């Protein structure tokens, strides 16, 4: 147990940026969920069992008439398909973590992936415990934010118009950070070009899904080269 205490203590400073981000976007999610008439307990449960970030924001709009199960599955898959590439690059690390690997797979978000790839494990801490601590703390920040937002949305009526932009803002920050740090910017360029092309063809109200499909197709075509580059960056 002492090994875990040290791992959490040493990992915490690295998760502070995620703490500040997840609290606010978790609060935004909780407020949006409460405005649909659901108890804050459901927001907490969803953050515990789903924990999908942008997928949860998207799910808020699923709880309305006219949304089919197929639409839910397809939209969720498209939004979170990037996690397939994340997982491939971390297979070697996760396979060494025993039973903890199942939680590591479940808890793999954009921010957690970035920390797992870029953070150097301290010499006096076991790698599997250190990485586990990062993942668990990151999810706890999201759950706490969801709880605060759910309670605030239920008890303090206010106009939440535009609050869903919090997730967009977070992704913009992540994109800029990755762009500044990455040696290979081909995936980012692919995303920008695909989104621009689909925006011109399908318009602002319908370009998201075509963009995702186009990006996935291009990434799969060049996956051998890209996977090798991503794996190298995570070693």
TrEMBL record:
Alphabetic keyword roster: Cell membrane, Membrane, Transmembrane, Transmembrane helix, Transport
Compartments, as annotated in UniProt: Cell membrane
Main location as per UniProt: membrane
Database matches in Pfam families: AzlC
Annotated membrane topology: Multi-pass membrane protein
Protein family membership: Belongs to the AzlC family.
Protein name per UniProt: AzlC family ABC transporter permease
Lineage, uppermost ranks: Bacteria, Bacillati, Bacillota, Clostridia, Lachnospirales
């Amino acid at each position: 147990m002492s090994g875990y205490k040290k791992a959490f203590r040493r990992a915490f400073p690295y998760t502070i940026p995620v703490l500040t981000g997840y609290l606010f976007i978790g609060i935004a999610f909780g407020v949006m969920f409460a405005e649909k008439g659901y108890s804050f307990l459901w927001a907490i449960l969803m953050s515990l069992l789903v924990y999908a970030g942008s997928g949860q924001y998207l799910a808020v709009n699923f709880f309305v008439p006219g949304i089919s199960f197929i639409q839910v599955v397809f939209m969720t898959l498209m939004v979170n398909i990037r996690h397939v590439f994340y997982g491939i690059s971390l297979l070697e690390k996760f396979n060494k973590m025993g039973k903890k690997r199942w939680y590591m797979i479940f808890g793999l978000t954009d921010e957690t992936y970035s920390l797992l790839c870029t953070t150097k494990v301290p010499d006096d801490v076991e790698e599997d415990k250190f990485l586990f601590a990062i993942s668990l703390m990151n999810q706890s920040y999201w759950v706490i934010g969801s709880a605060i937002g759910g309670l605030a949305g239920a008890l303090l009526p206010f106009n939440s118009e535009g609050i869903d932009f919090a997730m967009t803002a977070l992704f913009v920050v992540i994109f800029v950070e990755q762009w500044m740090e990455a040696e290979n910017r081909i995936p980012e360029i692919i995303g920008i070009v695909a989104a621009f092309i689909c925006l011109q063809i399908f318009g602002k109200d319908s370009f998201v899904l075509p963009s995702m499909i186009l990006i996935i197709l291009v990434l799969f075509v060049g996956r051998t080269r890209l996977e090798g580059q991503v794996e190298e960056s995570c070693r």
